[in-house]
Amino acid sequence: MAAAIGVASCILLMFLTRSMHPPACATTMMPIIVGADTVNGFYFVYFPVLSNMLLLVLVAFLFHRFLLKKEYPTQPTPTSDPIHKHKDASPLVRLGLQPADLKGALEEMNSYLDISEKDLTRVYSLAQQRAYTRKFGEVRCKHIMSRDVITVAPSTPLEEAWSLLRAHKIKVLPVLDDDRQVVGIVSLVDFVKRAHLKGFDDMYEQLEGFVKGQEGKPPPHVSEIMVSPVFSVNERDFIAQIVPLLSDQGMHHVPVLDADQQLAGIITQSDLIAALYSSSANQNLG
Fold first, then answer.
1. Average confidence (pLDDT) per 10 residues, the chain, 286 residues
2. For the chain, domain boundaries
3. In this structure, are residues 279 and 271 in contact, taking their beta carbons and an 8 Å threshold?
């Protein structure tokens, strides 16, 4: 009777805590079968059970964080937009499958699945990308990117970079080294953030003073305010792969690299919208 009650209680607790571990039932039965005195009485709970459990959790933490480079323990899927810090869900979530849908589906199955809500969301996202790729055909990043990209070097004076942004009416400048490899990116936001503006009445004068630098000192350079490292894509990547980047992850521009890891172009949200609209229109006409 004691064995039956112990195993049943163990299964119930594992089910309620979503932590299925079959060997736990065997551990529950051991003191009952061999006798409490054989396993050192109540201290059996502390050693080896608790000590081994803590060791396993530590190994799992190190394995996920440093080898797999994954979050552990997993956190619940955010219901709001963590990038722009507002209560609306991200665009792809608003238009597609939502975390509440996944949670509801798992609850309706009335059985245990050894997968977290976050991992299930990831599976759905990857499946959605494959569906996009099938729908939009062989459209790759090289087909929609802008090729005539205005760039700067790390040693470019801030005043020159600021003038380029204004003259070309663009918002970002990729920063390239002598081998045309992307070492950073500088945007209008970087200028505003690093200028430490004090009020908005004389904002233009403050920005002008920042980009020119202090009198008597060397002018500031792009390397002082650029963001590095930079997330980029390959020119042969399908455009479906950049949809989450430009819709949910707060990116507005993504540098595109060629086979030699040199800058080949840049894709903006406008480029992506135009590509998706063109593909959809062509399908409707077909």
1. 80 78 77 75 80 88 84 67 63 65 74 71 78 73 93 94 92 95 93 71 69 74 92 91 81 93 94 80 58
2. 2-67, 91-136, 141-285
3. no
CATH topology of domain 141-285: CBS-domain (3.10.580)
What pTM does this model have? 0.61
